Amino acid sequence: MDHTLEPRRTAHGHMARARTARGRTVGLAATIAAVTVAAVALVGVAPAQASGKTSTGGDYAVTVNGTTTNPAVGKEYKLRDTAVTGTIAVRGKHNGFDIRVADLGVYDYTLTGAPDTQRMVTTPTVVFASKVPSLTATQLAGTRLSSLEVRDDTLVAIFSTGAGKFKIQAKDGAQGGVFQMETEFVGPVTFTHTLGAGLFYFTNPYTGKINFGDGTPAVTSGSGAHQMLLGKDSPQVATKTLQTATTTTWTVQPGGRLGGVLGEDAIELSAGATNCTSDCQAQNQIHGSLPVPPDPVDPTPLPTR
Description:
By secondary structure, the protein is mostly beta strands. It has helices at residues 28-41, 137-140, 280-283; strands at residues 51-53, 61-64, 67-69, 76-82, 87-91, 95-100, 105-111, 125-134, 144-151, 154-160, 165-171, 175-184, 189-195, 200-203, 210-213, 230-243, 247-262. The chain has one domain (28-283). The protein has a 17-stranded antiparallel sheet that branches.
């Protein structure tokens, strides 16, 4: 993901928040240009570790083979070398999703809209209808849940097959670097991301990068307050092969990953991921604070084809 669990700090070690007031326009173009140049000069970004943002904390429960487990606060639940049938259900305070063991795809990745200063929706909203790797029958043969670890707002699941391994990491945050999938097969793996109903990919006019969202403006006060729903695909050692208004397809190389980033981290002026395939937490970390441009206004969906 694009950020570690540590809060961002300035060079002097003080806590810093990059977001400015919504609608800021004065000096924006100059700021974007200057920071983009500086960001490109940084050595590495995008650590391979999930990190969510929430003001109220997260709490995952997981259902495997019909048994639901929600470990006590601060306690860890571990499961090893288990044959699994059907679907693994992951349900958190801020997000939830299903893992279908038959194809190792993730389905109905949903933001719950639970009360939180970082939330981007106020009712359950399916952000991704599916995130599916294209694995052959040979690659899927003998699939087992090699390892599952759940602790508070963090989940790590590793599946082993006769041909390799597949890893899913998730964080129960309202936004931030909340999800990623990693492959360890001999050859590249194709992933297809399909957005939920009402969401679309668009070109952010402030950064020129591809984001996704539903175009609903933020509500800044009251019981229905929420930030604008914004996100991006977060690849590493991966090549985009298809982009439509609602779908992206990526070819991920062995050791690479495909993640998702939500909220202000999805639109900040970072340089993007490096091609690190191991021990990426240290090499791919931005030590500092990056400006966040204003929310896009009435974003235009990309063409359907």
